[in-house]
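Hello,

I think I submitted the iron/sulfur cluster job twice by accident. Can you confirm which output corresponds to this input? Input:
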Amino acid sequence: MLIEKYELEVFTPPCEPGAERFSAIAHLPNDIRDVFPYLNAALRGAIYEPAVPSVSWRKAGHYVVFHPDRIAVSNVEDRDAAIKELEGIIALVNRIWEQRDQIEPSYKTRRRPTGVEIYKLLPRTNCKACGEASCFAFANKLAAGQVQLEACKPLLEDPQYALQREELAALLDVDLPAIGPKR
Ligand code: SF4
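Support: Only one job matched these inputs. Its output is below.
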């Protein structure tokens, strides 16, 4: 097992006092950088930066960063959820490490899409159904990994946006459910 023990730290980021979102860090006693090319290959949308080295990954609206000596997860709704999220991620890293003989390691660095690139593919109606004041605000939050594409209901449910929807899914490297309103 790659990660057998760790020290857990849970906190509210100092840059967001009162934001009521939590971050958690698992401090690791051993260096895990050897798993990074396997994480890069196995985690959809992961961004590997070998010079740092680090791997960053958006997971269901959370932002996860793997460093050689720690794993951090941010934008979690409460303390217990932050701990649970981090424990799930550690289990995932251990699984990927155990299966590394079956994974082709990837040393590529993918480019992170910008808010402007995302904005150009949104409906741009500023309807606020996603809870944001504008499509541009939503695009910037999406680029930062703070919201999920599924929050834009018109994009998911209105067939007129089918092409944009496919392009956005490819740009963000995510899977989306079939188009149409939820029943
Ligand atoms: S729901 Fe979609 S179309 Fe409406 S404001 Fe949000 S991003 Fe724009």
